[in-house]
Structure formats: C-alpha cells, structure tokens
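ok so for the tutorial part 2 we go from a plain amino acid sequence to predicted structure tokens. step 1 is just haveing the sequence, like this:
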Amino acid sequence: MIAFFSWVIVAISFRGEASVLQDEENHRDRKLKNMSNQKFIMLHRRVHEKSKLMWWLILIIALALTFTWDDF
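step 2 — the prediction. this is what the tokens look like for a chain of 72 residues:
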C-alpha cells in the first residue's frame, strides 16, 4: 500500500515537473531577449543540473519507501 503511494508521489512529481519546465521555457524566452547567448547557456545548464538532481532524489526516495515499507 505504501509502495503504491510512493509511486503516486512520483507520478504527481512528473506532472509538476512538466508545468515547471513550461514555466522555465517561458522564462527562458523572456531572458533570451535580455541576455547574451553565453550567459543564457550557463543559466540553462544550471537549471538542467538542478532538475536532473531533483529527479534522482525523487526516484531514490520512492524506491527506498517501496522496499522499506513492504518489509513491515
């Protein structure tokens, strides 16, 4: 049961990430008008790295919850 809820949390996170990515894209379009390409590329890399780290963290937590709570 807990495993199911942990995967529901992951699914909700995926949906939230889609809206965050859309917001980032809109923000990026506005920033692109005001920023040089080099600065924009550096900003985009930082955002991508943080997003990637967040997904690994969510996946690890979901897997940990799945295996931990199923043992009890």
